[in-house]
Amino acid sequence: MSFFEKIFSGLTRTKANLAELDELFQNYSPDSTDFYDDLEELLIVSDVGAEVAEKVIYQMKKMTWERRFRKGYEAREGLVEVLSRLLDSGDTSLKLDTIPSVILMLGVNGVGKTTTIGKLASSFTAEGKKVLLSAADTFRAAAAEQLSVWAERSGSDFIRHEEGSDPAAVVYDSINAAKARGTDIIIIDTAGRLHNKQNLMNELSKIRRVVDRELPDADVETLMVLDATTGQNGLIQAQHFLESAGITGIVLTKLDGTAKGGIVFAISEQLGIPVKYIGVGEGIDDLIPFDGKTFAEAFFK
Predict the structure, then answer these.
(1) Which of its termini does the chain have fewer beta carbons within 10 Å around, N or C?
(2) Beta bridge mates, 223
(3) Strands, E assignment, 202-273
């Protein structure tokens, strides 16, 4: 299945929400205020967000006037172009050129963070890279157990301490092990919840200081995992982490399970952080690198 087909299939529920779209473009008139009102409503229903939807409509009207759109297919292509631009919020590739490189994984409990780590690890090992998984979420025994299963399944090395241990100490030992073993990529799982937000952010800052001290020249990607089914609440989660953790990219999971896939556009536009991966299914190959233009085309095909 091609990249486009995977996204198209993964957006089935969202596209059901946009069932009126075909009729809207078939009856397109560049001078119709109803067209733009209806389009804005459809965008909001798909969780693009009111602010972003308003911006899209403004740009669509401007493009229609500049390019003299007269046909529905012209307007549809223009819409895809406008939305593609919204998704251009930075480099969507991972910069992991040093040996070792580090991926720091963030996200609240239940978003699919550990599963995402496992899928990334499987992808990297399939490319012939040596991967080490670091169980720095020491506050939930289940997190380390789940990560150990993924380490075995993906053929990755695995470092853990006892439940309740210092997460930064786990990271320190993981880095030393990676150096000794010639590891290409260290993927660090972190806690999704502590007693309060400040404790969590302090713990993440401590982990990052260890990474910077022990691997001062390493490439470090800080990825936040968001559950697409939470919609606009995911934006609030990301904003909390963004303030303290220096996020370099978003991994959006469970897109196939929501009718509100438009949250991708809200994330890119309002947070200014590139979406780097999207999850469109349960399979090991259903975590795919993100491409904005292809996503926009699949969204409004």
Answers:
(1) N
(2) 105, 249
(3) 220-227, 249-253
Type of residue at 87: L
Burial class for 119, CB neighbours closer than 10 Å (0-12, 13-18, 19+): buried
Going from the C-alpha of 156 to that of each of 24, 149, 150, the distances in angstroms are 50, 10, 8
The three-state DSSP-derived secondary structure of 140-162 is: CHHHHHHHHHHHHHHCCEEECCC
Q: State residue 221's pLDDT score.
A: 96
Cα 294 from Cα 298, distance rounded (Å): 6
* Tens-digit pLDDT profile for residues 43-55: 887 778 888 889 9
Residues 6+ apart with CB under 8 A from 6: 280, 281, 286, 288
Give the model confidence (pLDDT) of 128-152 as tens digits.
999 999 999 888 878 889 999 999 9
Could you count the other beta carbons within 10 Å of the beta carbon of residue 110?
10
Q: Edge to edge, what strands does the sheet with 131-135 contain?
A: 157-159, 131-135, 185-189, 101-106, 220-227, 249-253, 275-279, 287-289
How far apart CA 155 and CA 152 sit, in angstroms, is 5
The pTM score is 0.86
Which residues pair with residue 105 across a beta bridge?
Answer: 189, 223
CA proximity to 46, closest of 76, 28, 19: 19
Give the contacts of 34 (CB within 8 A, at least 6 positions apart): none
